[in-house]
TrEMBL record, chains A, B, C, D:
Protein name as annotated: 3-deoxy-7-phosphoheptulonate synthase
Coiled-coil segments on the chain, per record: none
Keywords carried by this UniProt record: Transferase
Biological processes per GO annotation: aromatic amino acid family biosynthetic process
EC supergroup of this enzyme: transferase
Taxonomic path: Bacteria, Bacillati, Bacillota, Clostridia, Eubacteriales
The keyword Transferase belongs to this UniProt entry's keyword annotation: yes
InterPro entries the record matches: Aldolase_TIM, Class-I_DAHP_synthase, DAHP1/KDSA, DAHP_syn_2
E.C. number(s) listed in UniProt: 2.5.1.54
GO molecular function: 3-deoxy-7-phosphoheptulonate synthase activity; aldehyde-lyase activity
PANTHER family associated with the record: PHOSPHO-2-DEHYDRO-3-DEOXYHEPTONATE ALDOLASE (PTHR43018)
Chain ranges of the DAHP synthetase I/KDSA domain: 13-253
């Protein structure tokens, strides 16, 4: 177990019939920051499916800065998300925060997301190396390119190379945007690891108006997909409302790009 | 569970007869980055005890950037560390990386360290709220003051206020030092949370020659203790040798400060 | 003199017949980091003109970190640059470092560049407000969006609104790239100031292979132009050779983009 | 002019009878951010002299982020500052922003301050190499240790080694403090350059309550002095009031430290 596995040789990740990476067309992942109710996620799923979205996202275990903030609907939310994915006939992705919930998330989700806060959680990464579900590995909020590569290598070293990388902005001195979206990692990480790289302009900027231009930029430099927060009613969202697009706004973005 | 618990009221943490924080004299934690062998940790423990060190540190589960680097002696190392602490008659501290090893670490260690990479691991923090051992919570490598406060609050909110905070440097543009030691958080965090705050100048600078001046600075602005890497033979250390003091160098620092 | 002038109303900057900003097609600025000899700049100018470049760049006063590094050919270099621009029939841009050389630079250059190191040089900015030549104002290496806006406002407040902004990467913890190219400022600065915004992917990444993908990304999110370092023989360049494209590489990039 | 001059050999800077650096006791520089009126600076100077301050500071040319903010009393203010220094019988320091005002500042000031925004202004630094007044060179807001060393080297290379370095905090992701005070540069810069290094905890933290603990920390790690903002009435200050101490607060700090 001493030879680096991710060395730049192209890896295409399959989710059902969907192919991510390589020369495949970019994939579109969308959905609310949090699953808030059965109605909310069902409505969103059906609307997004109609627009052409490939994968439905929705958080059910939420890593919140304050222990007193909404922590997600947890397993109940996961069931709603699954039901929504089933009705809309699209695969679902959700974040896993710990090993405790691995089995249930494995049972329901098609892709397991590891969030920025857990990119350095090597125990969890090793565990994910032992399963064969695709993993979406977000960059840590101040992770260097090498640290991110090595985090992916932890998963690969233990046996799972079905990894999708996701740039979501880094922490810098700038306060105008929520994070500084670092698009240079798209060509860098694709070249260094061979893995597909997608971009999350919602967290990457934190500003609704910037999502469209940064989505175009991401695809222009080679991103294999986009993950964007969409909420049927951002003003009432329990988290990240200010950076969520309405379904209508997302539709416009989707059509302009495609 | 909605009212902030850590509001600045002074909290003194007890480890056996040792009191940390408040008006108590600063505590000295020292030992190698990694427990490497029974001999190494025994030799170090006895020498440090003789110098006057209060708590022995030693890593047995190591969060390493690369999966191919030395990952620690794990449970075997923990037993060596415990034996060394027993022989030297000083309490021990070691890092816990995941819930899987919580029971065994609880059994052996006197203080449980949560490293920078796990400061945002809210699932683990919640679990630590349910035990009553003291927790040493390192600042995340780019954690803001508020995020660090809230990480401690996760532990407190679930019932455990025996928390020691540890500044270990933050990530900035500067490359001369390994990290930028941010001493302003000593008065800030003491005031905001009431918890004891100690400083780790070894990781905070990454440069052996800077450990003494920065230790003095840390105490001058109110730090409740220092955690310093000491190795009987830094040149042969399996990790962090370049920033470790020899026992002789540590003795000189200890005497100059006390 | 108390009302903000740059408020988002679109400003198109003219350089001879060239229009920059608004709905005009993107402009291409290229040339060596430093003017090194008459032959070098003439050869480059003629080759770039043939490819379709709009403006020739070349540094003659060089702000170097070390006082012992090559400081540029100064006025002699400026004359070579002018001659090259004349022969190739394209306007020229060069950096001004101080007021002392303002008159001579004004006489020769078509656009005056203010580099990152002088973005906060408010005395110089005020002086540039009193002339009517176009100014290319690079973002400071750790300038916030607001500071950059206000630096442009210094020029505008004293009477000159012929300003082109240039993103060239910011300083972050990342060391893989020379700087972190922050493309989100393209839509932000265009919207906040109304000024044209161009991108310099050469300094923004410091890596030859990243220039093409980041150029495409810059244009995709609305950049009004690109400034790229090109050298007939990068291996022998006196400065920034590793991030310079050969003329052949630039031609390929230019054709692929246009 | 090709051999590095500042190589770590100790340099003591003289200002009248005052010696700065080496084994000399720390010097105390204090005064308002801006000279606002004859009365304000006279009152401050006399009060500070009585406390024991060695050097009076006061800004008359102010580098403000916005062109519409108070830009200083300029030459009128310089005359007030000089008069105050004369009456209190202490030397004065003020910031120079450009060559235009060099002669008048040279005539009045005992030390010339180069602010953070001009640390990379190499033209100005070269000019200061040709005079023999002491220069206080602040670190740029995101200047690396090497860049700061080389900025000092610019002055030294042109003939003036009467340089005092001043750490004033760097720009990081943290927003709780105005800047992150990087005290590790005190031993680093003293060792690398041999020059005296002082610390400005007022800009370094931006928070009145942190000035005392960080002053103590600065001296504990070897700083050769402190520069602190003091205003007779911070609430009415035209700039930086929130980080200024009252004369009474400064007196308390001065006595506690001495």
């Amino acid at each position: 177990m001493n030879k680096q596995i991710l060395t730049g040789k192209e890896i295409v990740v399959s989710v059902g019939n969907l192919k991510i990476g390589g020369n495949n067309p970019p994939i579109f992942i969308a959905g609310p920051c949090s699953v808030e109710s059965r109605e909310q996620i069902l409505e969103t799923a059906l609307a997004l499916k109609k627009i052409g979205v490939h994968i439905l996202r929705g958080g059910v275990f939420k890593p919140r800065t304050s222990p007193y903030d909404f922590q997600g609907l947890e397993i109940e939310g996961l069931k709603y998300l699954k039901e929504a994915g089933n009705q809309a006939e699209i695969p679902i992705i959700t974040e896993l925060m710990d090993e405790k919930n691995l089995d249930i998330v494995l049972e329901y989700a098609d892709i397991i997301q590891i969030g920025s806060r857990n990119m350095y959680n090597y125990s969890l990464l090793k565990t994910l190396g032992n399963i064969d579900k695709p993993i979406l590995l977000k960059r840590g909020m101040s992770a260097t390119v090498r640290e991110w590569m090595m985090a992916a290598e932890y998963i690969a070293a233990y046996g799972n190379t079905n990894i999708i990388l996701c740039e979501r902005g880094i922490r810098t001195f700038e306060t105008y945007t929520r994070n500084t979206l670092d698009l240079s990692v798209v060509p860098i990480m694709k070249n260094e690891t061979g893995l597909p790289v997608i971009v999350d302009p919602s967290h990457g900027t934190g500003i609704r108006e910037l999502i469209k231009p940064m989505s175009k930029a991401a695809l222009a430099c080679g991103a294999d997909g986009l993950m964007i927060e969409v909420h049927p009613n951002p003003e009432k969202a329990l988290s990240d409302g200010h950076q969520s697009l309405t379904i209508e706004q997302y539709k416009e973005l989707f059509e302009e790009i495609n």
